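Today's session is about reading a structure prediction critically. Students often jump straight to the picture, but the first step is always the sequence itself: look for stretches that repeat, for charged clusters, for runs of hydrophobic residues. Only then move on to the predicted structure, which in these notes is written as discrete structure tokens rather than atom positions. Here is the chain we will use throughout the hour.
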Amino acid sequence: MMRAVRITTLAIATALAAGASARAQGAFLTGNDLFTACTGTRTAADADCTGYVTGVADALLAVQGFGEGAPSVCLSANVTRGQMRDVVPRYLERNPQDRHYGAASTTFVALRQAFPCPSGQRSTR
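Below is the predicted structure for this chain, in token form.
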């Protein structure tokens, strides 16, 4: 358990150090960092990927719930964390030119493309 914590801490520290261009944009992680976590073979990295994507989705839904702007991501009650997690590395794989941007913004774009809201509709979550 302690070894997993140290490995995760080291991975996060490495990702933060590598994310200089994204930090200039105000981001902690880049799309490259997230792509590495989402496509890696380590269980901890996969959990980081799923947790990150879920956190961004929750934040988007919270902001939309406050009525800030038009809804742009519609997640039905049937959309799973696994589905959201699968969408992001697929987007990053198909759009490598966007990987230097912040991970949150690339996650938002990937989710918006995969789960768009029809005009005027709100998420059912």
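Discussion point for the tutorial: The CA atoms of residues 4 and 44 lie 7 Å apart.
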